[in-house]
Amino acid sequence: MSRAGRVGVGVIGAGVISSQYLDNLTVFPDLEVLFVADIDLDRASAQAAKYGIPGSGTVAELLANPDIEIVVNLTIPAAHVEVALQALAAGKNVWTEKPFALDRESGRKLLDEADRLGLRVATAPDTFLGAGLQTALRLMAEGAIGTPLTALALMQSPGPDSWHPNPEFLFQEGGGPLFDIGPYYLTTLVQAFGPVRRVTAAQSTSRAVRVIGSGPRAGTQFDVTVPSHHSALLDFENGASAQVIFSFESHRKRTGFIEVSGTKATIELPDPNNFDGDSVIFDEANEDGKTVEAVGSISSRGTGVAELAQSIRAGRPERAAGAQAFHVLDIMVSISESARLGESVPITSSFTKAPPVPEGWDPKVATL
Fold it and tell me: What angle do CA 50, 52, 58 make, to 5 degrees?
């Protein structure tokens, strides 16, 4: 039997990122956050108390709550699939942090299980639902740059070890610039061009050991077990192409850069790791660029959870869908394989792009 009214939410994982989510989830009127779970029960209790959430405790207790329809999975990347499968088995829909999975096999298992049970697995990043990228995507769909042909995406920095107090996981399986940062840029590119059909890539690791640069553990050394630089050429099914660089090896910081060139003009998109930001169009009449202000919602992380809840109630597909996230995962795994093998790798997965959100859509406005 289908339900009506607000959608009950439970959060698994009470770490740092949970505050960014709960700042929003607790004010979106279509959601009702009912429970916070964590292996550290005191940490779960503290987050629940901070945000006025009625329940906290173990994962098993959260999954046993019949009023929770969506589980927000904020665990570490290596646990994403395991926790999501537990939630599905308990009859819950899932919103999971990126990356969707660490390999194609487990990602496909997760999608297949959701399909079998008639449940949904939606996935971060949801930044593309924000005003910044939605405005840029609408401009391209309306023909502002003509037919989009090529793109350039750059994320270069020295790496988070200089400022993050516990950066080890960002340099191990499930991390690195490709899996940690790549989903933001690749999701934006497939939103602009559609599915990728082939990748050709290279990668490197500048240092096998890094040193924590801040916090109580400053000076502690740790091993780097994944590449810290990736560059790739993406060929899309529609004939377009994009060059991408994801690097923790550059001493010159250049982040948040994506530009798309078309038959009439070039558009610089806002930072794909943010929900706001203006677009800039360059053409013969505007060599220095014409700024187009963003229109729409600038609510932060958790926006996709609200959109998922509304989609469940409306019986329509969610926009940050698992099929899209699996395709992005397939691209990332293929980039790694291409670099390792020294040859191009075909992409066998695909997905159907969701329509843009209505210009006036706002997750802070009640619809249920």
Answer: 80
Instruction: Decide if 365 is inside a domain.
Output: no
CA 23 to chain centroid, in Å, comes to 18
Distance CA 182, CA 242 (A): 13
**Nearest-angstrom CA–CA distance, 134 and 188:** 10
Q: Does the pTM exceed 0.85?
A: yes
Same domain, 194 and 239: yes
Residues constituting the chain = 368
- For range 39-54, the mean pLDDT: 98
Cα angle: 83, vertex 85, 91; to 5 degrees: 110
Is the distance from CB of 2 to CB of 279 less than 8 angstroms?
no
Range list of H helices, 251-357: 303-314, 322-341
Give dist(CA 312, CA 257) in Å, integer: 34
The model's pLDDT over 212-237, given as tens digits with 9 standing for 90+, comes to 999 999 999 999 999 999 999 999 99
For 220-279, the pLDDT digits (tens) are: 999 999 999 999 999 999 999 999 999 999 999 999 999 999 999 999 999 999 999 999
Same domain membership, residue 236 and residue 91: no
278: tokens are 């203006």
Is residue 53's pLDDT more than 60?
A: yes
Q: How is residue 26 annotated by DSSP?
A: T
Distance CA 298, CA 361 (A): 10
Ramachandran quadrant class, 334 (left: phi over 0; alpha: psi -120 to 50; beta: rest): alpha
Domain harbouring 184, CATH code: 3.30.360.10
Neighbours of 295 (CB within 10 A): 12
Residues facing residue 243 across a β-bridge: 152, 233
